[in-house]
Design brief:
Layout: E1 6-9, H1 16-23, H2 29-32, H3 40-49, E2 56-61, E3 67-74, E4 87-94, H4 103-118, E5 123-129, H5 133-142, E6 145-155, E7 160-170, H6 171-181
Parallel strand pairs: 4-5
Antiparallel strand pairs: 1-2, 2-3, 3-4, 5-7, 6-7
Helix pairs in contact: 1-3, 4-5
Length: 182
């Protein structure tokens, strides 16, 4: 998939070094619920075991095709947000040097188009933990609607309990948002 400035493509093992470059930053993973990567080998293992989903993509700048973040639609069986075949969960993160450029909003818009148009989703769910204002802002910009807050969400990779906020977007909302913006 492509946008004006980005390519969304499947992860390859050759992305391990760039994944480590950005995922080792303590400002990236912990706010999203995972610890910073400790080595290129750990990043390679993540590519093999976590970033191997059918709808998991590396976010790359078009000019160099280098992985600078990740975006995924987690389908039934890979999310606890829904049990329905036509609903999924959106997850994403972006390397710190690429913040404040509109990249994530651009990538999310494209993955939503893919989810609704190509995969036939009727609803996409997305969440963020208390304090993750960047993720909250991306969700607001693209039109997600607040659904609920949970006070005691287990974050197993961080051995913590946090406050989690859940938002959603229906295909109808997405269509309406895109008609208004065109």
């Amino acid at each position: 998939m492509q946008t004006d400035r980005l390519v969304l493509r499947h992860w390859t093992e050759s992305d391990a070094e760039s994944l480590y470059e950005y995922a080792k930053d303590p400002d990236i993973g912990p706010i999203a619920g995972w610890p910073p990567h400790k080595s290129v080998d750990e990043s390679l293992n993540i590519i093999r075991t976590v970033f191997n989903g059918s709808e998991c993509y590396a976010i790359c700048e078009k000019e160099n095709n280098k992985a600078i973040g990740a975006i995924e639609l987690k389908l039934k069986g890979h999310t606890d947000m829904t049990e329905k075949d036509d609903e999924c969960e959106l997850g994403y993160w972006l390397g710190k040097p690429f913040w404040n450029k509109g990249y994530m909003t651009e990538a999310v818009k494209e993955i939503l188009r893919h989810g609704f148009d190509d995969l036939g989703m009727t609803t996409v769910w997305c969440g963020y933990y208390d304090g993750n204002e960047r993720s909250k802002r991306v969700q607001e910009k693209v039109g997600f609607v607040f659904h609920h807050t949970c006070e005691n969400v287990d974050v197993p990779l961080m051995n913590e309990v946090r406050v989690g906020h859940t938002n959603f977007m229906t295909k109808e909302q997405w269509k309406k948002n895109n008609l208004i913006k065109k």
